Amino acid sequence: MNPNLFAKGDWQDVYKRRQAFKLEVKYSDGKRIISGHSVD
């Protein structure tokens, strides 16, 4: 994951980047699975 997509820069820009990115966190059998992708 790119940490620059989450909390760096002007808040208006951060908000726009968060709108364009989907992050999923799943827990199964004691394991954490993190996946993410950009959204059009």
Folded structure, characterized:
It is a single chain. With 40 residues, the chain is an alpha+beta fold. It has one domain. It has one helix and two strands. It has one helix at 11-19; strands at residues 21-28, 31-38. A two-stranded antiparallel ribbon has the order 1-2. A hairpin with a 2-residue loop joins strand 1 and strand 2 (31-38). It is elongated, with a radius of gyration of 12 Å.
Report mean pLDDT, rounded to a whole number.
Answer: 76
Provide the low-confidence segments as ranges. none
Structural class estimated from helices and strands? alpha+beta
Assembly form of the protein: single chain
Report the count of strand segments: 2
Number of domains: 1
Helix coverage percent? 10-25%
* Shape, per Cα inertia axes: elongated
Order of helices and strands: HEE
How would you write the strand order of the largest sheet? 1-2
Q: First CA to last CA: what distance?
A: 18 Å
Amount of beta strand: 35-45%
Write down the Rg. 12 Å
| Main β-sheet description | 2 strands, antiparallel
Helix count from the secondary structure assignment: 1
